[in-house]
Amino acid sequence: MAKSQKPKAIKMKVLITGGAGYIGNELVYKLTTEKGIDEIVIYDNLNKGNYNLFTGLRKLPYPNIKFIKGDILDGRKFRKALDGVDVVYHLAANVTTPFADQNPHFFEQINHWGTAGVVYAIENSDVSKLIYLSSVSVYGSQSGLVTINTPLFPKTYYGISKKRGEDQVKRLSDKLTTYIVRSGNVFGYSKNMRIDAVINKFMFDAQFENRITINGDGNQQRAFISMEMVVDVLKQLPSSDLKSGTYNLVDKNLSIIDLATEVKGIYPTLEMIFVNQHLKMRQIKVEKDDRLSTLATQPQKNLKTELLEFKGMFTF
Q1: Would 304 be classed as within a structural domain?
Q2: CB-based burial label for 299 (10 Å; 0-12, 13-18, 19+)
């Protein structure tokens, strides 16, 4: 039997692993606007140097935010951090592009066994909802359109480790509400940027070097979603009535060459360099999951608008 859910009127205490990271940073800002949330705990080891959340003119207009410097591999500290927590967002992960198929231990340690430790600690706590941010990389490389029912064939060590993390989370599905959210390739502004993500790198290189590099012939397709849409959907989950389950969180399927062409439309003199054009690159196209789309409160935007907004965040 799943744990009984608290009435929505009751204030919730939320903990975010990886809360100072690329997505966690922006999710914290979003959650401060939710009336049903009484306290936010940021749990992060800061090993990626994500200190930007703590400084700058963009203030967090919220009194009940707590930071705990801790690692999810430190089970004792994490269990203590769960005191009084109602909802956990598990975002902490090793995500390194384009080296997702190198150093398996690097991914296995955090994404698999770290998640196992998080699950074990939650299992022995009063947490009522767990939201695990996974990745569409668990599907591997697929030629057809991927749906939530497509069998999983991860091809990289990163994808394998995220699938194993999902398996750990599923152990809790009969004990509390669990959401496994498979995100597409996230792009867009955050105070703690990931420049290695493909759109982010294209935009950075276009802005400051007027040159981008395309691996392969550019015809490979990927599933993308903007930062704005990711955090908009994630913030709704604690108060939603969605059932426990696995969901795909994507917005657009784009080929790399179409993406590069869109960037060139913003930077007309942009130079495009092709590398290893003879190689066939991994690709994945993912069907939009309408069950999550209903949670989005922000208006739909086309890619050009999103890229122009991103460009506007550069300082020069």
Answers
A1: no
A2: exposed
Q: How far apart are the first and last CA of the chain?
A: 55
Query: What is the bridge-based pairing of β-strands 37-44 and 65-69?
Result: parallel
Q: What are phi and psi of 200, to 5 degrees?
A: -60, -40
SS (H, E, C) 40-76: EEEEECCCCCCCHHHCCCCCCCCCCEEEEECCCCCHH
Closest CA to 214 of 157, 259, 165, 177: 259
Alpha carbon 235 to its chain centroid, in Å, reads: 12
Total-model pTM: 0.93
Q: Per residue in 70-79, pLDDT tens?
A: 999 999 999 9
For residues 148 and 8, give the distance between their C-alpha atoms in angstroms, rounded to a whole number.
Answer: 28
Give the chain's domain count.
1
Residue 262 lies in a domain: no
Report residue 182 as tokens.
């498979």
57 part of a folded domain: yes
Instruction: Let me know the angle formed at the C-alpha of 181 by 188 and 149, rounded to the nearest 5 degrees.
Output: 120
Query: Is 73 in contact with 45 (CB distance < 8 Å)?
Result: no
Whether residue 268 has a cis bond before it, omega within 30° of 0: no
* Helices and strands per DSSP (H, E), number in the chain: 10, 14
Judge whether 275 and 230 are in contact, CB under 8 Å.
Answer: no
Domain span including residue 24? 12-189+225-250+286-298
Structure tokens at 48: 């990626």
**SS3 of 280, please?**
coil
Question: Tell me: the pLDDT tens digits for 265-276?
Answer: 999 999 999 998
Q: How far apart are CA 186 and CA 226, in angstroms?
A: 6
> Which own/partner pairs from 262-270 qualify as long-range (CB within 8 Å, at least 24 positions apart)?
262/303, 262/304, 262/307, 263/202, 263/203, 263/206, 263/212, 263/307, 264/206, 265/304, 266/206, 266/304, 266/307, 266/308, 266/311, 267/206, 267/207, 267/210, 269/210, 270/206, 270/210, 270/211, 270/212
